[in-house]
């Protein structure tokens, strides 16, 4: 479990807005509605959704909790099928030779190659199992602060999309500018002053 | 708020200047507890890596990476003299007498990597999992609060009227070892 492992990587978010009523129920509904499907879709290259922290491979929010003290903790699972390029090359070579032998020609056209590749990709995509990646999400709802336990750009993008779809709350990445805007106690005048700063030059 | 992507690029320099200031604070033995007006003692040390970048005009950049447990940081100050800023720093932060955190902080994104917190108590049994989770969450929020407080302290100094006298000049003196 990433969250309890010895080291963590964290990207931080500020959550704009709050629910009108019953945050716990709203979060539960969002998690259930956008939970990762229990059965893998054989033809989908990427599948993503929520899963309980304590049960990343059996996404059952009725059985496992997402509430720990005053925090919400759950996981984002992204299942991805990756077809190795070398495998595609191998299958292409075999199929091209077969096509040549069947047609009695020494060459095949560009269009025929594209068709062969498309068929090979379909077959391999169907056969290939998805590789799951699990990223934990720690949410302090009252503080409007959330940690995604990864700094991988693709995972961040998936997270931002699925989080908004699930809860209709916008997650804003925290970096220097957004930290000042959302988490500081600076007055408007101080913020204006910060935002007019220009880079320092120490060189002589 | 500004467009997020625009703001990210426009103000990433503030994060890099903050990391450079942190290095200055550590190297010149400044009192971190006092700087952030903390009730509990807070101390910082440079860990085992430091990355600096220097813009060379257009889109060219010079990157200096210093790694190793006992690495000398002289190349880093040389790079600062040439106009580089710290873009990534590995820090050891001690909170109070017992809590020690190790982590790497990036200036532009404020991403935290390789974070090691003090060990959460418990024997790992299922009964204790909720307690371990809550404790771990508290540790993660505690260290990010310290980082934020340090950042806001830097920004407060940076926008003070006496920044040149109390901030910029001492940093330049440290860089040039005057």
Q: Calculate the mean pLDDT score of chain B and round it.
A: 91
Beta-strand content estimate of chain A? 15-25%
Secondary structural class of chain B: alpha+beta
Shape of chain A: extended
Report Rg of chain B: 18 Å
Which key terms come to mind for this protein?
heterodimer, A: 204 residues, alpha+beta, 2 domains, seven-stranded antiparallel beta sheet, 6 helices, 22% strand, B: 178 residues, five-stranded antiparallel beta sheet, 25% strand, globular
Question: Could you give a quick summary of the protein structure above?
Answer:
By secondary structure, chain A is an alpha+beta fold. Chain A contains 6 helices and 7 strands; from the N terminus they run βαβββααββαβαα. Chain A has helices spanning 23-33, 85-103, 110-127, 153-167, 176-183, 188-195, and strands at 8-15, 46-52, 67-68, 71-80, 131-140, 145-148, 171-173.
Summarize the structure in words.
Chain A is of the alpha+beta class and 204 residues long. Helices cover 39% and strands 22% of the residues of chain A. In chain A, strand 3 (67-68) and strand 4 form a beta hairpin. In chain A, helix 2 packs across helix 3. Chain A is extended and about 80 Å long. With 178 residues, chain B is α+β, with helices and mostly antiparallel strands. Chain B has one domain. In chain B, 45% of the residues lie in helices and 25% in strands. A 5-stranded antiparallel beta sheet of chain B has the order 2-1-3-4-5. In chain B, a hairpin with a 5-residue loop joins strand 4 (99-106) and strand 5. In chain B, helix 2 crosses helix 5 (129-159). The N and C termini of chain B lie far apart (41 Å). In chain B, 31% of the residues are buried. At the A-B interface, strand 1, helix 5 and helix 6 of A face helix 1, helix 2, strand 5, helix 5 and helix 6 of B. Strand 1 of chain A pairs antiparallel with strand 5 of chain B, so a sheet runs across the interface.
């Amino acid at each position: 479990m990433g969250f309890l492992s010895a080291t963590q990587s964290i990207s931080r978010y500020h959550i704009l807005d709050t629910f009108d009523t019953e945050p716990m129920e709203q979060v539960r509904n969002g998690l259930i509605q956008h939970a990762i499907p229990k059965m893998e879709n054989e033809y989908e290259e990427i599948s993503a959704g929520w899963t309980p922290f304590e049960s990343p491979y059996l996404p059952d929010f009725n059985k496992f909790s997402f509430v720990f003290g005053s925090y919400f903790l759950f996981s984002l699972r992204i299942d991805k099928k990756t077809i190795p390029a070398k495998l595609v090359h191998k299958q292409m070579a075999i199929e091209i030779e077969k096509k040549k032998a069947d047609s009695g020609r020494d060459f095949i056209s560009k269009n025929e190659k594209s068709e062969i590749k498309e068929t090979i990709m379909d077959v391999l995509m169907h056969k290939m199992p998805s590789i799951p990646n699990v990223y934990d999400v720690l949410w302090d709802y009252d503080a409007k602060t959330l940690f995604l336990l990864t700094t991988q750009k693709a995972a961040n993008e998936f997270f931002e999309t699925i989080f908004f779809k699930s809860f209709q709350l916008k997650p804003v990445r925290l970096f220097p500018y957004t930290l000042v805007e959302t988490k500081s106690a600076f007055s408007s005048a101080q913020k204006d002053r910060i935002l007019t700063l220009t880079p320092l030059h120490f060189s002589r | 708020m500004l467009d997020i992507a625009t703001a990210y690029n426009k103000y990433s320099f503030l994060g890099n200047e903050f990391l450079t200031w942190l290095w200055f604070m550590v190297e010149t033995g400044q009192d971190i507890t006092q700087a952030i007006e903390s009730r509990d003692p807070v101390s910082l040390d440079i860990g085992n890596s430091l990355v600096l970048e220097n813009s060379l005009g257009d889109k060219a950049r010079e990157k200096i990476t210093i790694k190793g447990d006992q690495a000398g940081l002289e190349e880093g100050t040389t790079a600062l003299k040439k106009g580089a800023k710290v873009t990534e720093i590995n820090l050891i932060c001690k909170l109070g007498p017992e809590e020690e955190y190790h982590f790497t902080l990036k200036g532009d994104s404020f991403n935290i990597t390789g974070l090691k917190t003090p060990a959460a108590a418990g024997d790992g049994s299922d009964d204790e999992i909720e307690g371990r989770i809550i404790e771990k969450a508290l540790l993660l929020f505690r260290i990010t609060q310290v980082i934020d407080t340090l950042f806001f302290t830097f920004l407060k100094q940076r926008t003070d009227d006496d920044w040149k006298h109390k901030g910029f000049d001492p940093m330049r003196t440290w860089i040039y070892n005057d």
